[in-house]
Amino acid sequence: MNNIFDKIREQIFNVVQNAFKACEQKGTLPHVQISDMSVEVPRERNFGDFSTNVAMQVSKQTKLPPRKTAELLSGEFDFTGTYIERTEIAGPGFINFYLSRDWLYDCVRIIQEKRERYGEVDLGKGMKVNVEFVSANPTGPLHMGNARGGALGDCLASVLKKAGYDVTKEFYINDAGNQIEKFGMSLEARYLQLVLGEDKVEFPEDGYHGEDIIEHAKAYFSQHGDSLMDKPSEERRRILVDYALPINIQRIRDILSAYGIEYDVWFSEKTLHDNGDVKRVVDYLTEKGYTLEKDGAIWLNGEKLGLEKDEVLIRNTGVPTYMAADIAYHYNKLVTRGFDLAIDLWGADHHGHVARMKAAITPFGLKKEQLEIVLFQLVRLFRNGELARMSKRTGKAIALEDLLEEVGRDAARFFFNLKSAGSHLDFDLDLAVKQSNDNPVFYVQYAHARICSMLRKLAEEGIRGKPVQEVDLTLLKEKEEIELMRKLSEYPEEIALSAKTLEPSRLTRYVMEVAAGFHSFYNACRVKGEEEELMMARLILVDCTRIVIRNILELIKIEAPEKM
RNA sequence: GUGCCAGUAGCUCAGCUGGAUAGAGCAACGGACUUCUAAUCCGUCGGUCGGGUGUUCGAAUCAUCUCUGGCACGCCA
Questions:
Q1: For residue A262, what are the CA distances in angstroms to A157, A173, A259, A388, A513?
Q2: pLDDT class for A238, splitting at 50, 70, 90?
Q3: In whole numbers, what is the pLDDT of chain A averaged over residues?
Q4: A517: nearest nucleotide, CA–C1' criterion
Q5: Which of residues A76, A100, A124 is at a domain's end?
């Protein structure tokens, strides 16, 4: 048993179920089917350690007021072999369970035994999951949307791993299609401007206007001179793209790596075109009657898939659209490579694509649920209380690179993981760099450093912890100690919930609560200088706290400093 | 115009598969360092959960209408 919550839920469920049976035998209650019985930690401490709503849930079946049902059940409760000491009926019919503190001490023992593996749950049961995130166009620098998506995706992948999923992290390189055409066009125009003079060559209106395009052209020119001038335009563009694209991709890899993100797979869109997958997928859809021809193009039949409108798959020029490639890509993930589930993180501006993408995989015998899209809202940066659009350094739109330089990796990752994906994020640049009490990053890191410092100080005096089996944990009974143990006990639950809801941000908020619990404990209780037995018990508790904080910081890839 | 997301304390946000008196941080105010790190802690103040109606034992949570903000509606991705 590594999740104390599961154990307690099981105990409470059994106690309740046996009570129902006893009532049924006595004839005081009819036979009931227990469904939707919740066992939760109540909001208020004086409502007990755990509480269930079962009496309310079955009120329709018992045809009795919930409180009455609760009373009848309570009369039959048998707590033998459980943590439960007593119960109370409260409110509209809640049954509140008051537990012996042994459950907390057992939890401490679990943490001591599991160490860095504490928090693992087997929700995924080895299910193969592909988490795809960032997947930025390799035609320019990474922006704030990529930064948020990166932090969320990376942490989600870590959480899913911890929850027992077999996770693959993936970056989809959009190295084919329209934007690459534009990239080539833009590079060519800059190159020609360089050779012929800026005013001699007009820059395409819908080209990429960024400084980086000019830099690529300059760099190529300085290495190869005007050798491209006697080549046909098409070849010239291809050569320039072949030159600049790998540089951009490498740059993206480097910045993401500095951001703490390492992918398992870098998947090239181009390979899907080159090996015929895109064509095959469209042909299959056509064969099965999911496409129609209109104006010389091949469209995905919206009506047949329950969509609002049709979508072009193959343009009348014969060139496939992004949609066609995306279908082939998801086919590749879910069929060719056999992932049970694909999770994509997209900026909220792509929400219109969600329904069609999920629908588009169904003709292949896949279920819509096998593709989960996590949408995240866009980011606004604030500096000096004002909307910050531009980088201090470059005067251009703020890139991930600029953000890392300004606030650092820890703050960036922490802040992007603080708010749920669905809420708009206002990122306070000043707060993120502030080394003070209102910066949550430091708050958590400080708790960890403080613990390490305590352990160091004790070690200097030759005091070291004992194995938990030799320690009397029942000495931990101060309010702050109890609260801290409770908080630590929730960790596996938090992992499970984060994984279920695909919301890694709750873990960031949770670790702040752990840190708060520790700081309160620290101010209320001493370790060093206390009587030996108590000191040893508290040492265990402090060590458990260190384990959990470090565990989570590692998971969200934020440094856990031993000194501050 | 249609669709999606959001609207909760002065600010930033949790809570949303219906549950008890709606929470946290920041800000404001008042306290706590001769003792393991005060980057900390303790306390006070702060709310018509955008508004209306409905569903029910019970609604911040579900339905519906409405207001406000963001986004999307392309042979772009």
A1: 11, 15, 9, 29, 28
A2: very high
A3: 92
A4: B41
A5: A100
Amino acid at A549: I
String of DSSP letters for A424-490: -EEEEHHHHH--STT-HHHHHHHHHHHHHHHHHHHHHTT--PPPGGGS-GGG--SHHHHHHHHHHHT
How confident is the model at residue A437, as a pLDDT? 63
Tell me the sheet residues that pair with A387: A382
A308 CA vs B3 C1’ separation (Å): 10
DSSP code string of A460-475: HTT--PPPGGGS-GGG
Are A234 and A139 found together in one domain?
yes
In the prediction, which pLDDT does A392 show? 64
Q: Which nucleotide is nearest to A542 (CA to C1')?
A: B36
Q: Strand B: which nucleotides have any atom within 7 A of a protein Cβ?
A: 3-7, 12-15, 19-27, 32, 35-42, 57-58, 70-77
Residues A361 and A368: their CA atoms lie apart, in Å, by 7
**Does A423 fall in a domain?**
yes
User: Residue A410 in contact with residue A446, Cβ under 8 Å?
Assistant: no
From A499, A497, A123, select the one nearest A343 (Cα to Cα): A499
Q: Which pair of structure tokens corresponds to residue A470?
A: 């030799």
Is A224 found in the same domain as A289? no
Rounded distance between C-alpha atoms, residue A558 and residue A564, angstroms: 14
CATH number at residue A224: 3.40.50.620
Q: How far lies A370's CA from each of A329, A357, A366, in Å?
A: 14, 11, 7
3-state secondary structure of A391: coil
